[in-house]
Each structure stands twice: as C-alpha cells, then as structure tokens.
Amino acid sequence: MDSIKDKIAIVGMGCTKFGENWDKSAEDMMVDAASEACEDAGIELKDIQAAWFGTTRLGTAEPCATALKLDYIPVTRVENLCATATEALRNACFGIASGVYNVVLAIGVEKLKDQGMGGLGTVSGAGGNGTLEWGMSAAMFFARMATRYMNHYRLSYEEFKQILAKISVKNHHNGSLNPRAHFQREITEEQAINAPMVSWPLGLYDACGVSDGSAAAILCRADMAKNFRDDYVLVKGLGLAVGARQGYLQPDYDMVHMEESVRAAKQAYDMAGIKDPFKEIDLAEVHDCFTITELVITEDLGFCPRGKGPEYVKNGTFKLDGELAVNPDGGLKSFGHPIGASGLRMIYEIYKQMQGKAGPRQRKNPSLGLTHNFGLNPGSGIGSVAILGQRD
C-alpha cells in the first residue's frame, strides 16, 4: 500500500472561538475560519481549487459554497459522525495526492446551541429531540464502559472517580490557557468528584460541552509549500476504521477498549513509520467526549499498557509538561465539541504547536503530533487518526 507521508502540507489554518456563539450563524463562523486560514496561507479564496466541507447538521455542500462564494468549483460535503472534520481533511489530502488538485480547503462547522436539545441525542437519531427519543444517550454508553473498566481492573469507585477527576482538571487547566476554548476556567478535583451525576459513575465534569464553532485548513502539494510559508506542517499519516458492530455482536467484547481506535492508529502509525508512539509522539489531541474515553484512548493508541492508564494519569504523564501532552488545548472537555468542526480544531492545535505559536500551552520543540476522533459508541463506532509533523 502506498503512503501519503510528506506528500501534503498544511500551509494555513483558522479556528473560531468555540462556545455559545449566539451572535453568529454557521455561515458566519465558516467565513471567519476560512478567512483566517487564507490570511495565514497568504492566499485568497479564489485560489482554492476544491473544498471538502464537514458538517452533521447542514444537509448539502451549498451553505459552504454560498458562505465562502466558492463559485463553480467542486465542494463536497462529508459526514462521519464525530470524525467528520478529520474526514474533510483526509479527503482533501487524497484529492491532492491523486494529482488532480494543488491547493484545496478542508473546513468543518457545527451550530449546536440553537437546536433545542442539551446533548448529542440518542441511538435512535442524533438529529431529533434527544429528550423525547427512546434509546441510550452517549453518556449512558460511555458510563457502561466506565463501570466495566472499574470492574475489569479492580478499581474502587473512589479510586476511579479520582482518576477521572484528574483528567478533567488537566483539560480545564489547559483550556484556561486558551482564549478560543468554550470553558476557560480551572476546576478542582473535589468539584469534579462531587459534581451532579449525569450517568453513573460519570458526573457533570466528566462530559464535554455542546458548542458552536468552525475550523479550516489550506492544504497543498508538499513540493509547493515553501511558496506559501517556511513553517508549513506535513501530513505524516492518516487512519480510518469503521466498526461493523462487532462489539455488540461478539459475546467476548471486553468493553474496555475501542477496536476502531486501535485499527485507525495502526494504519496511521504504519503510514508514518511510527514504531513506539509513546516515545515518538510529543503531543496528542484525543476525543475526550467523556473522561473515561480519554483514559481508554491513551491505552488504545499505545501511549501506555492496558490497564495502566490510571497510573500514568496519577503520575502526570499526560499533563502539559508531562512526557506526552494529551489535549494541550483543553480537549473536547474544555474547548468544546461542535461535531463537524472538532477534528480540524484538534489539527489547528497541532499545527500551532509545530510552528511554536501555541502561546502558554507551547511544548518545547515538538516534532510529531497526533489527533484522534471517535464517533458513535463503544462496540460500534468510527475511529480516525491523523499524524502531523514539522518539515524536515
């Protein structure tokens, strides 16, 4: 299988503030994100040859084309649940790798705060009114994973809640350093542990926020990147794995890992030539829709051995100043989660980190960064991984 390693460069990015953006429409936010990305790359929207548009709520490509005035060029709407924005970037990368395009746009947007529901819906359909539908909410599915993790690794409720609280405190701290994050304040472990219960054992501070936002990237052929900027960032590897409900259908599913994340990571690692992710990757943006999800993801991605996630969390391994910073921008937990924009928001953080422009969150001399998304629920989902790195 051929690899796209070092064939595609990101030369410009933009990201809006995430949050309750009542004063902006989805189209407004797309204009803001795309305009920042174009200014960053030193180009105009008319220079873009094709665009891939990620969203779960806007049903066609037309809102993107209209908002950005992308007249008569290919604009493709993509959706892959919570991996939607990374899917926009993945398709944009292959559009360039095919040799058909030289300069393209990947953009994602979601306007969730105006839809009249307090979460992402239930299994019978995220598009409707989640408070009235039958089925299990996302919180209930991941709470089931949390209870299984406690049982599987023989953790007491008190021990487990403290571990989850440390993850939440870490991500809120990182978000407090980020002016574009939805939630920009620190919390304490005590607050996280004693917060109102959402779905036992997960409390309020174990769940990410529902947000509005948009993020965008300008990509080009790597051999053209120096024409745009010196500090471009290269795509090193991409992985996507879609589960076939095997976790639901197979009685031996352990419920303490997500196979889709494991398989997507393997694809991306193989493409990027990564043998030891914990030692080779400097920072990672992972899909912490719930604190238990981040804990399991660190094991799924090979950042720590199975069952050792709690130990690594207690040791501060994944803090901003730890050996491998996880969610340095605050993660879904603090930055927020507009579904169609989140993956590109993660890539925006890695892009800034590679350029040394992440401000108080900046890691020292990072060379490789990873982003990860997971859509749907443990046992049947979509795993997506992207690996980005500095130019040679």
Question: Features of this protein?
Answer:
392 residues, alpha/beta, Peroxisomal Thiolase, Chain A, domain 1, ten-stranded mixed beta sheet, two-stranded antiparallel ribbon, 12 strands, globular
Folded structure, characterized:
- By secondary structure, this protein is an alpha/beta fold.
- It has a domain at 8-116 and 212-218: Peroxisomal Thiolase, Chain A, domain 1 (3-Layer(aba) Sandwich), CATH 3.40.47.
- The chain is built from 13 helices and twelve strands.
- The strands form two sheets. A ten-stranded mixed beta sheet has the order 3-2-4-7-1-8-12-11-9-10, sandwiched between helices. A two-stranded antiparallel sheet has the order 5-6.
Strand order of the largest sheet: 3-2-4-7-1-8-12-11-9-10
Q: Extract low-pLDDT stretches.
A: 122-134
Number of helices: 13
CATH architecture of the domain at 8-116 and 212-218: 3-Layer(aba) Sandwich
CATH topology of the domain at 8-116 and 212-218: Peroxisomal Thiolase, Chain A, domain 1
- Principal-axis shape equals globular
What would you give as the CATH superfamily of the domain at 8-116 and 212-218?
Thiolase/Chalcone synthase
Quote the average pLDDT.
Answer: 94
User: What proportion strand?
Assistant: 15-25%
